[in-house]
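Figure 2 data, in text form.
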Amino acid sequence: MALHITGDTAADALLTDNPLALLVGMLLDQQVAMETAFAGPRKLHERIGSVDAETIAGYDPEALVEAFRQTPAVHRFPGSMAGRVQTLCQRIVDEWGGDAAALWTSGDPDGREVLKRLKALPGFGEQKAKIFLALLGKQYGYAGSGWHEASAPYGEDGAFRSVADIVSPESLAKVRETKKAMKAAAKAQK
């Protein structure tokens, strides 16, 4: 398994090898391009030396904001997103022993349980949790029963709705087209 989300080999390798990096990338995926969001953990790693829940949770908040602000910025809203990432990491430390993968591995959970666990995280609403669950199932080796249903409609095979479907530059283009069409349809309904 190797993820190909950002177009940057080192950033994609970190996402592939580090479950927390993948979770942080998903958290950052709002109001910025997907590639920018998912490249964020690599920038953090370069600036603070680690993408580890304990390290980020215990990092000086002002220094973390500065790491987010350095050019190129980790996110277009460095202050608020640094705080959200730190809060997420603290939750992973407190509830999952610092192991982000425990969200989908501890106790052999089914898709509905993983969705429930994801939705309990700060910054993960229904849609973000479903997209992340679909990403786990489609590309990250998670095979818990019922994940397709729990992540619907993002878990559908052959759909190009989200980051869960990005495996190449071509699939990224298809996801962008689908999102553009969905926004246009929603706008037309208003």
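Caption note: The chain has one domain: 9-159.
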